[in-house]
């Protein structure tokens, strides 16, 4: 599985450590909340709401340099829109990888 990285954030920040740290703080603050809402909706089988949660989480996935994971998330989002949970296990694994990574920052 891919490993999250800060390459995109480094590029965005252009060497400005204050800006870089602000971006990281925003991700570390928002991600757990967005993940929790997704988990609540998926558990309740609210697939439309869960698809919206996945859509939001895809942005974090992209920012953390996870290109293959982004494609998996996009497929899962589309499945949820069709009231299907195919891809849930892979998506949940991506969320765990990101959680582990953010805990190291």
Radius of gyration: 14 Å
Shape: elongated
Mean pLDDT: 97
Ends apart, CA distance between termini: 19 Å
Protein architecture, described:
The protein has 105 residues and is mainly alpha-helical. It has a domain at 47-105. The chain is 79% helix and 0% strand. The protein starts with 6 loop residues before the first helix and ends with a helix. This is Hpt domain-containing protein. InterPro entries: HPT_dom_sf. It comes from Jejuia spongiicola.
Short note summarizing the structure:
The protein is mostly helical and 105 residues long. It has 5 helices and no strands.
What are the defining features of this structure?
single chain; 105 residues; mainly alpha; 5 helices; elongated; Hpt domain-containing protein
List the helices and strands and how they pair.
Blueprint: H1 7-13, H2 17-43, H3 47-63, H4 67-81, H5 88-104
């Amino acid at each position: 599985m891919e490993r999250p990285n800060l390459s995109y954030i480094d590029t965005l920040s252009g060497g400005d450590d204050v800006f870089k740290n602000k971006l990281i703080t925003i991700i570390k603050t928002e991600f757990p909340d967005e993940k929790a809402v997704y988990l609540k909706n998926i558990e309740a089988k609210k697939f439309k709401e869960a698809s919206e949660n996945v859509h939001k989480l895809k942005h974090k996935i992209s920012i953390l340099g996870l290109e293959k994971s982004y494609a998996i998330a996009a497929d899962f989002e589309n499945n949820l829109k069709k009231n299907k949970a195919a891809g849930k296990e892979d998506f949940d694994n991506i969320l765990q990888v990101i959680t582990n990574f953010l805990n190291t920052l």
